[in-house]
Amino acid sequence: MEIKAIVDNVVKVKADAIIVNHFEGMEHPDGDTAAVDKALDGAISQLIKQGEIKGKLHEITLLHSLGKLPASRIVVTGLGKKPELSVNKVRGAVAETCRWLRHKGVASVATIAQGAGINDISLESAAQAVTEGALLGLYAFRRYITKKENDFGEIKQLLIAGSENQKLPLEQAIVRGRILAEAANWARDLVNEPANYMTPSQMAEAARQLAKSYGLKAEVLEREQMAEAGMGALLGVAQGSQQPPKFIVLSYKGSDSDEIDVALVGKGITFDSGGISIKPSEGMADMKGDMAGGAAVMAALSAIAQLKPKINVMAVVPATENLPSGSALKPGDILTAMSGKTIEVLNTDAEGRLILADALSYARKLDAKSIIDVATLTGACMVALGKICSGAFSNNQELVDKIIIAGNEAGEYIWQLPMYEEYREQLKSDVADIKNIGNRYGGAITAAKFLAEFVDDTPWVHLDIAGTSETDKEKGYLVKGATGVPVRTLVNLILSLVK
Ligand code: BES
Ligand code: ZN
Ligand code: ZN
Predict the structure, then answer these.
(1) How far apart are CA 263 and CA 265, in angstroms?
(2) In the prediction, which pLDDT does 150 show?
(3) Alpha carbon of 207 to ligand 3 centroid (Å)
(4) Is there a cis peptide before residue 318, judged by omega within 30 degrees of 0?
(5) How far is the CA of 377 from the centre of ligand 3 (A)?
(6) Residue 279: is its pLDDT beyond 80?
């Protein structure tokens, strides 16, 4: 989709549809909506008076201009109560409206930087939200649908109208919004791919392609190199699968120093059957998305490479399947991780922490100054926080505070959970240094406590995205399937670290 800033009054733009807005509780149309209302001889005012346009968030009302305006359709989108407006609501409302218009067969749309000037929302962040909302909301994963429905529709062009002196900031916001949304959509694609296509080898190939497109450095360690590095925990998980594991490293160099400022580590289980501790078959298909953390960190690097902040960032993705077989890891097995620590594996379904242990050690060995890992790690996190917030766990309050702020900016909510020492007791093993599961309670925290053993004192945040990486509802800028969480958060964070 082409997205363009234009110098014009939205009332005068020739497009298949123009989008204006209305706030809940307001008796009269305002701003550009008032100008459109005037051109329509008061039709919008009339509908507000009749109670058909209430301005509720995501409310969509269609009017036909019947020649009174160059655009043939006018959509009035509800933005909710004005004092409660946020960029995230703009993002969602634009997404819903664009999807609705696509369904109506509309190909070109014009609008304004919705919400600019309200509640401290700048013109740039409003235009960025409009861009992101359109691109994220119109995302669809249709690769394997061979019957091309001719009524699916496609919006080919989105125009954002503003004044002459707004053109440059609008253009910059569109570029930034596009980079962020396309990175998130790239991650969504990887997660939505079925596991028979998105194998560890395919993830490595996707990383290489990304590196080629955006000038990143890509390195892929093979099984032998993992063995040389002593990655016994990762290899333990991989030993049950016919697919070769891949250890993917992408690097972005934006500063002159040779230090790695941030290592982004992402869980790359391309299918999690549970292994010998096999999962129930109901819902197992969702486990094709157990590499969402890995996809997110790679996607974040592609956006960072385009935005070029002066900082060095690395993405590290241990990728493997977790399957049962004659060669698979068994409950009771003891593995030696790259750090030298021994792990008693009491449940082969707690595999994410095993592969992350070695990836965290790898990041530490390269002396990364801070580490953020992203993983669909525990069902317990989803029980605790639902599908609204990702869980955050950290040994460094300053870093986790920054991530929470970056997440709020992106509309990707993050909630911090505690890391009291007492939780570590659950991981005591009688036969090894640590065991890979705790008891029934506080499972998201004990998983984080396990990871903490492999980062020592490096400032670190663990994000558990088990609940947020996928959605079963189409809502706002989210469509069924992968969400792309937390790609935009990670990019916002890296940009904020440079400021
Ligand atoms: N990949 C799963 C966690 C998960 C569950 C992600 C649901 C997304 C949705 C992880 O590897 C797992 O199986 N964790 C176990 C840990 C348990 C055995 C300690 C879990 O959460 O049940
Ligand atoms: Zn598992
Ligand atoms: Zn898993």
Answers:
(1) 6
(2) 73
(3) 21
(4) no
(5) 6
(6) yes
Mean pLDDT of 251-273: 98
- E strand spans, 107-152: 108-112
- Quick one: what percent of the chain has pLDDT higher than 70? 100
Pocket of ligand 1 (CB under 6 A): 272, 290, 347, 349-352, 376-380, 382, 437, 443, 466
DSSP codes of every residue in 160-215: EEE-GGGHHHHHHHHHHHHHHHHHHHHHHHHHHS-TTTS-HHHHHHHHHHHHHHHT
Asked if residue 410 has pLDDT above 90, the reply is: yes
CA 73 to centroid of ligand 3, rounded, Å? 47
pLDDT of residue 273: 99
pLDDT of residue 241: 98
For residue 432, the SS3 value is coil
| Mean of pLDDT values over 383-404 | 98
> Per residue in 167-196, pLDDT tens?
999 999 999 999 999 999 999 999 999 999
Q: Please report which confidence band the pLDDT of residue 247 belongs to, taking 50, 70 and 90 as the band edges.
A: very high
Q: What is the CA radius of gyration of the chain?
A: 24
Give CA 69 to chain center in angstroms. Answer: 39
- Which residues contact residue 177 at a Cβ distance below 8 angstroms, ignoring those fewer than 6 apart? 3, 127, 128, 129, 130, 131, 132, 135
What count of other Cβ atoms lies within 10 Å of the Cβ of residue 144? 9
Q: Which of 90, 95, 99 is nearest to 136 (CA)?
A: 95
- The overall average pLDDT reported for the chain is 98
Looking at the annotation, which residues are catalytic? 279, 353
Q: Which two tokens stand for residue 350?
A: 């707690």
Q: Which of 378, 346, 395 is nearest to 445 (CA)?
A: 378
SS3 95: helix
User: How much is the pLDDT for 148?
Assistant: 78
Distance (Å, rounded) from C-alpha 221 to C-alpha 223? Answer: 7
Distances 305 to 121, 217, 311, 339, 362 between C-alpha atoms, Å? 27, 10, 10, 31, 22
Residues facing 375 on adjacent strands: 464
Cα torsion for 208, 142, 282, 234, to the nearest 10°?
0
Mutate which of 377, 381, 445, 470 to test ligand 1's pocket (most atoms within 8 Å of Cβ)? 377
E strand segments, 236-360? 246-253, 262-266, 268-272, 312-322, 334-336, 342-344
Q: Within 60-86, where are the H helices?
A: none
Separation CA 313–CA 403 (nearest Å): 15
Q: In the block, which residue shows the tokens 């304004």?
A: 112
- Contact call for residues 354 and 345 (beta carbons, < 8 A): yes
Query: Shortest CA distance to 415 belongs to which of 459, 468, 492?
Result: 468
The phi, psi pair for 17, rounded to 5°, reads -155, 150
Please answer whether residues 374 and 461 qualify as being in contact, where contact means their C-beta atoms are separated by less than 8 angstroms. no
pTM tops 0.90, yes or no: yes
Confidence of residue 151 (pLDDT cuts 50, 70, 90): confident
